[in-house]
Amino acid sequence: MEVRLRLIGAGGHGILLAGNIIGTAATVYSSKNATMVIAYSPAQRGGWSRADVVVSDEPIDFPIFDHPDVLVATTQETYDLEIGNVRSGGLIVYEEDTVKPAVRGDVTQLGVPAFRTAIKVGFRISANMVLLGFLTELLKLLPHDAVKLAIKARVKRRIDVNLQAYEEGVRLARGVRL
Amino acid sequence: MSERISLLTTERAEEWLLKPGVYFMQGNIASAEAALIAGCRFFAGYPITPSNEIAEHMARRLPQIGGYFIQFEDEIASINAIIGAAYGGVKSMTATSGPGFSLMQEGIGLAAMIEAPVVIVDVQRAGPSTGIPTLVGQGDVMQAKWGSHGDYEIVAYLPNSVQEMFDLTIEAFNTAWEYRVPVIVLADQSVGQMIERLKVPPLDEIKVVERNAPTVPPEEYLPFDSRYLIPPMAVAGEGYRFHVTALTHDDRGYPSTSHEVSTKLVTRLVRKIRENEKVIGRYEAIALDDAELVIVAYGITSRSALRAVREARREGLKVGLFRPITAWPFPYWGLREAVDRGARILVVEINMGQMVRVVREHYSNLVDIYFMPWAPGSVPRPHDILLKVKEVYGG
Known about the structure:
- The complex is a heterodimer.
- Chain A is an alpha/beta fold.
- Chain A has one domain (2-173): Pyruvate-ferredoxin oxidoreductase, PFOR, domain III (Pyruvate-ferredoxin Oxidoreductase, domain 3).
- Chain A has 6 helices and 6 strands; from the N terminus they run E-H-E-E-E-H-E-E-H-H-H-H.
- By secondary structure, chain B is an alpha/beta fold.
- Chain B folds into 2 domains: 2-205, Thiamin diphosphate (ThDP)-binding fold, Pyr/PP domains (Rossmann fold, 3-Layer(aba) Sandwich), CATH 3.40.50; 283-394, Rossmann fold.
- Chain B is 39% helix and 19% strand.
- Chain B has helices spanning 2-7, 12-15, 27-38, 52-61, 75-87, 98-114, 141-146, 162-179, 189-193, 259-274, 277-280, 299-314, 336-340, 355-363, 382-394, and strands at residues 21-26, 42-45, 68-71, 92-96, 119-126, 132-136, 155-157, 183-188, 195-200, 283-286, 293-296, 319-324, 326-328, 344-349, 369-373.
- In chain B, the strands form 3 sheets. In chain B, strands 2, 3, 4, 5, 6, 7, 8 and 13 form an 8-stranded mixed sheet that branches.
- At the A-B interface, helix 1 and strand 2 of A face strand 1, strand 9 and helix 12 of B.
C-alpha cells in the first residue's frame, strides 16, 4: 500500500520535522520505504513550508505527487491553497483553532486542536507532535514504537514533552472513525 | 597544522565517517557523506542553490576528520583550488549548479589537460542562466561533456535516487583517481534535495581506489609518460620533481608546439576513456526484453518514466525503460539488442533536446527515435509520459 501525505503550514510549525519523523520511522525503524520532497514559498519570513511524504511497503518509483491522499494543514492560507488538490475520497486534517474549514463533500475533514493541546502540555511548538500522534493512530500507517524512536532520534530538545504531545495526539484520535 | 595533516592517514578519521546502517537522508547530504568515505579531505566551493547542502555539510564534517573546507570568492577559484589540492595528493571535490558549473568549465578543461583527478557535483537546476534556482532542470548534459574548449573526455554520472547520490559519488572518486580525469556527478535538484532511504554498507565492503603512485626512482619519473595510457601520478612533496602546464606538453610536462607531441597527448587524453567506455559506462535496463518501445530517461525523470512503464504494461503496451547511469561515456551498447529487434525509442528529458542527440547519433539510421521535450522547472508526471507513449505507440 502506498500513502501520499502532504503536510503544510507556516515556517516554524515543524512541518519538515514532522515529515522527517514519519520518513525516519518508516525507513529506519520499520521495514518500509518512504520518500520526502520539500517545498517552500518564496518568502524568507512568514512563508509556508510543505513536506510531501510517500510511505509504502514497496520501493517507491516516483516521489512527486500532485494529489495527496492525506492533507495536514496548520494555517488558513495553506488550507485554502491545498484543499482543492486532495484526491477525491481523501482525508484532510486541519488545525482546529486556526483553520475555518470549507465545504468539500468528497473528502473527510477532521479538526484537531493541535496548538491548544500543545500549550496544555507546556510546549506550544510541539503542535506538530500532536498532529503526528493523531495521524499515526488514525491511519495505522506505522507502529507507535517506530514513530517514538524516530522522535527520539530527530528531536533535538525537550524530547519528553514532545513525546507527551504525541501521546495527547494519539488520545485525540481514539474513537475517531474514518 | 602538522597534527591536522597527520589525521588524514590515521584510523581516527574512520571513527567519524558515517556508520553502516539505514538512514532517511537527503541526496545532497548522502553525496557529501559518500565523498568523505571515498577519502575526500578537501572541499572548495561557492554557495549556489540547490547544491548548498553539500557545502554546508562538508563545512561541518571535514574539520571533524582532519580535512579542510574553504569557501572561495567564486566558482573559478573553487575548481582551481581542488585541482591544486589533487596535485597535493588530497582527494578533493566541489559542488555547484548551472551558473557555477558554467564558470568552472575552464578549470575542468585544465583538470582534463593536466589529468588532475577531481570530482564536481553539479546539482542541475532550471536554466538557462540564473533560471529558477530552486527548481529542477537537466540542461547541463551537453555542457558536462563539451563545456570546455579543445578535445578531451570526462566521465559524468546520473544518479536517480539518494542511494545513487551516495554510491555514485564514491564511484566518481574511484573513477577520477583510476583514470586521472575530472568526474562529474550530474545530479538534479529533485534527486539532490529529496529525502529517502539510504543503506550504508560496512566500510570494508566499499571499494575505494587510491592513487597509482610512481614506483620508479625520481630521476626516471615522467609525469605524462606516454608509454602508459594513464601515467602514474606523483604529487607535490614526495621527492619527485615534475613540471605541470596547461600548455600542450610532452612526457616530461614541458610545453611543446610539435604536432607529434600534440597528437600523442590529445589522443591519449581521449583514448584512456574511450577505450574503457564499457568498463566505466553503466546503465539500467527495465523490461527491455520484449519491449516494442523503449523510454530513455535519467535522473528524476527516469523515476517518473518507470511508473509510466508500469502503467503502460498494465494496459498491455510493451514498453521498457533504458536508464543511462553514466551520461558520459553514453552506454549506447545497452540499447543495441532492443534496436536490433526493431524497438522504437522515446527519449524524455527535462530540456529541449540533449541526450536525444546522442541516441540519434547511434541509432537514428536503424529505428525511429521520438523525443518528448520538457521545459525546466518541473518533472514530467507519469501520466504526461504515458500520454506521449500512447501517441508514439499508436502511430
